[in-house]
Write a structure and sequence with these properties.
The chain has one domain. It is about 60% helix and about 0% strand. The protein is built from five helices and no strands. The mean pLDDT is about 90.
């Protein structure tokens, strides 16, 4: 989460909220909309989760269809960049200390 954490802090996301990301489902720092987006990202990227029809109904309570498309693109792009960095053994550049 190196550069993304640094950017998050720079644009005003509180460090405590970033620290709570692993516990977003239990944290009161995230709105129901944010929790739905984070759960969607997890369901897309984790092999042991699926994007079920029931979840999509719940997601669409918070996001319009164009927003779901944009979220899907962002999650896919970030997954790609993570895999790209792994393939080329790119190491964090020290931004996370921000």
């Amino acid at each position: 989460m190196d550069i993304r954490r640094a950017v998050g802090v720079t644009v005003g996301i509180p460090r405590e909220k970033l620290d709570d990301l692993p516990r977003y489902q239990q944290s009161d720092r995230f709105t129901p909309r944010e929790q739905a987006a984070l759960e969607y990202a997890e369901r897309i990227t984790r092999d042991d989760h699926e994007v079920s029809d029931g979840f999509l109904v719940r997601l669409r309570e918070h996001f319009s269809e164009p927003e779901v498309v944009e979220l899907t693109f962002i999650v896919g792009f970030q997954t790609f960049t993570s895999k790209f960095a792994k393939a080329f053994r790119l190491v964090p550049q020290g931004f996370a200390s921000v």
